[in-house]
């Protein structure tokens, strides 16, 4: 017989691209995941996962278990939520995902405060720079910086966030002048490589009706925004960084805004909610606390 723990375990597998990814989500070793999967298959007498595929692939029976498990999980969550509402309490398991840097600085402290306020809630915070679309099906809340995802997703804006061209004073003073966006093509540019976007194309705007597109050749790149910020602080080139990340550096003079009349398109901080999770009391309570912490935006208050 299947238990709710079995369904929860297999739901994580079904939402992962590999057993190794499942192990990371479950905070166990890959051999432990494999052993538990084999035990579950032996108990049911069917194979649930096709091990011949490069990526984790469900058999027809595995897909059936995953589909029905989702229905059962939703029903249990709804029942738990309804009982909690009758008692006037916030309870259940809250799953949150956020980008690494922003999550550490601005989301993790709010998660801690939320856990202290609501002892009946268990919370899992996953810091990841995977595309939000990969996380929304397994999380209640995905904190995302930039344009929202599919129109079917529930999105709420939490805080404004500009994207700013900047470099260290040392670089600005030693390099050739940057007077127009076209000048950037002749400079050392530092970029963050995320998802599949074209990082060699910088789009800038000076007003609602005046835009410029520059094809740059990255001198240095990384998939970690903190690394790129450190390179810029070290005088290694020009970069585009989020306001939340560099507002303090700009205020202190460690970085200087380049082409101050021009900005990259804004990337507001938003919360993306899966359709199954968007209306729970714990989700609503957490978002209210997070919005309070981000109002006014801390990076603008610090810069002021």
Description:
The protein has 304 residues and is α/β, with parallel strands linked by helices. It has helices spanning 4-14, 19-26, 30-44, 60-87, 100-117, 132-135, 169-174, 225-233, 243-252, 281-293, 298-303; strands at residues 49-50, 57-58, 92-98, 121-127, 141-145, 154-159, 163-167, 189-192, 201-205, 211-215, 218-222, 238-242, 256-257, 269-273. The strands form 4 sheets. A 5-stranded mixed sheet has the order 4-3-5-14-6. Helix 5 links the parallel strand 3 (92-98) and strand 4. Helix 1 packs across helix 4 (60-87), helix 2 (19-26) crosses helix 3 and helix 5 (100-117) packs across helix 10 (281-293). The termini are far apart.
The percent of residues in helical segments reads 40-55%
**Largest β-sheet summary:** 5 strands, mixed
Q: How many strands in all?
A: 14
Amino- and carboxy-terminal Cα gap: 61 Å
Computed over alpha carbons, the radius of gyration is: 23 Å
State the helix count: 11
Order of helices and strands: HHHEEHEHEHEEEHEEEEHEHEEHH
Shape: globular
Give the mean pLDDT: 87
With strands numbered from the N-terminus, the spatial order across the biggest sheet is: 4-3-5-14-6
Q: Ranges with pLDDT <50 over ≥5 residues?
A: none
Classify the secondary structure makeup into a structural class: alpha/beta
β-strand percent reads 15-25%
């Amino acid at each position: 017989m299947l238990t709710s723990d079995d369904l929860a375990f297999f739901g994580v597998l079904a939402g992962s691209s590999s057993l190794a990814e499942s192990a990371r989500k479950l905070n166990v070793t890959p051999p432990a995941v494999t052993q538990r999967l084999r035990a579950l298959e032996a108990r049911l007498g069917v194979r649930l996962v096709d091990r011949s595929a490069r990526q984790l692939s469900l058999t027809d029976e595995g897909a059936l278990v995953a589909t029905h498990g989702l229905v059962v999980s939703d029903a249990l969550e709804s029942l738990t939520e309804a009982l909690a509402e009758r008692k006037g309490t916030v309870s259940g398991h809250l799953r949150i995902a956020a980008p690494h840097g922003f999550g550490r600085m601005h989301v993790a402290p709010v998660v801690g405060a939320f856990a202290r306020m609501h002892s009946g809630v268990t919370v899992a915070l996953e810091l990841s720079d995977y595309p939000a679309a990969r996380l929304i099906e397994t999380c209640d809340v995905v904190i995302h910086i930039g344009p929202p995802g599919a129109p079917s997703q529930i999105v709420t804006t939490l805080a404004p966030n500009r994207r700013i061209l900047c470099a260290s004073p040392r670089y600005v003073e030693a390099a050739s002048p940057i007077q127009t966006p076209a000048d950037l093509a002749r400079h050392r540019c530092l970029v963050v490589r995320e998802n599949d976007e074209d990082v060699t194309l910088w789009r800038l705007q000076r007003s609602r009706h005046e835009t410029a597109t520059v094809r740059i050749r990255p001198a240095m790149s990384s998939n970690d925004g903190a690394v790129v910020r450190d390179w810029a602080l070290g005088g290694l080139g020009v970069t585009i960084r989020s306001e939340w990340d560099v507002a303090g550096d700009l205020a202190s003079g460690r970085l200087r805004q380049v082409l101050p009349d021009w900005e990259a398109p804004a990337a507001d901080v938003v919360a993306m909610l899966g359709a199954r999770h968007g209306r729970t009391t714990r989700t609503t309570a957490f978002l209210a606390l997070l919005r309070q912490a981000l109002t006014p935006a801390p990076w603008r208050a610090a810069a002021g």
